Amino acid sequence: MNINLIRNFRQFLTASLKMTSKLTIETVKQNAEVAKRTIVELRNELNNLNAEYNNLRAEQLREENAKLLIAVEQARKNLVDLEIANDVKQIPVPNRTSYKIDALATGESAQTVSELVKAEAAPTPNVKDSKPKKEKKPKETKEKSSEDTNIPIDVGRLDLRIAKVEDVQRHPDADTLYVLKINCGEDKPRTVCSGLVKRVPIDELKDRLVVLLCNLKPVKMRGITSEAMVMCASSPECVEVLIPPKDVVQGDLVECSGYIRRPDTVMNPKKKIFETVVPDLHTNENLEACYKGIPFTVPGKGTILAKTLKNVAVK
């Protein structure tokens, strides 16, 4: 009886172990399959994330490139403005970047700008029906340049006129400057900054007639553009505004006998016309303002005088 029980128990254990082994193997297989599917899903998700990241990074780089394009264009414009301010000759060249900048300024996407860049890089088709460009005339330009070169640098290049001071104010940002409104016979008065504050009382300038140099290049003086210069007799101790003859009116021209009056529209600072002429401007023993000893005159009305200063510079 005991032997049978033991035999039955052994059979039971053997059967149980076989069943457990089969269950364990099935479980392992199932878990392996689940793990495999999970790995595939994770790999796909990772690929999707990488693609999304690459797209975002590419968009970010396009936006950064677009901003750099704007910065480069602005820097170029600033450089051109500085060159123009310093009379550096500008040579026109084809420039098709402005529409890209305009697209960015109006809120176009970086992709749009990128497409514009690609379009610019593409070769331009040869269109037979396109309008022919106007031909330049190099001969005329050379002739004009030659004429300018042949004009002597003397007092005739200065545009000196009689003018009337209509208003005088102190410069808001410069203690030594007046800001004058001066009418020299044009449609509107010119603004002139003059360093006469410590030399000439403001009451002596109001409503008086002066000699005005009208073709200097306009220049900013502490934020205010000065468009001409009041001519004065000057010594280290004293400055006197030149006095026109009687019966003159604003707009009358000032001449110098023996020199043809043919003033530049605006004197080119590089040619140093005024700097060449000014050493020969002075008053004589008769208080007359002169160029190389020849008095300035308003034809038919008289000479230009200083009040008291003899044999001093005029500037």
Automatic annotation (TrEMBL):
The keyword Membrane does not apply. It comes from the Eukaryota. It is found in: Cytoplasm. This is tRNA-binding domain-containing protein. PANTHER family: AMINOACYL TRNA SYNTHASE COMPLEX-INTERACTING MULTIFUNCTIONAL PROTEIN 1 (PTHR11586:SF33), TRNA-AMINOACYLATION COFACTOR ARC1 FAMILY MEMBER (PTHR11586). Its main location: cytoplasm. Residues 154-255 form the TRNA-binding domain. GO terms for biological process: translation. One of its GO terms (cellular component) is cytoplasm. Pfam families: tRNA_bind. The keyword GTP-binding does not apply. One of its GO terms (molecular function) is tRNA binding. Residues 25-85 form a coiled coil. Residues 128-147 have a biased composition (Basic and acidic residues). InterPro entries: NA-bd_OB-fold, tRNA-bd_dom, Tyrosine-tRNA_ligase_regulator. Residues 118-150 are annotated as: Disordered. Keywords: Coiled coil, Cytoplasm, Protein biosynthesis, RNA-binding, tRNA-binding. It comes from Oryctes borbonicus.
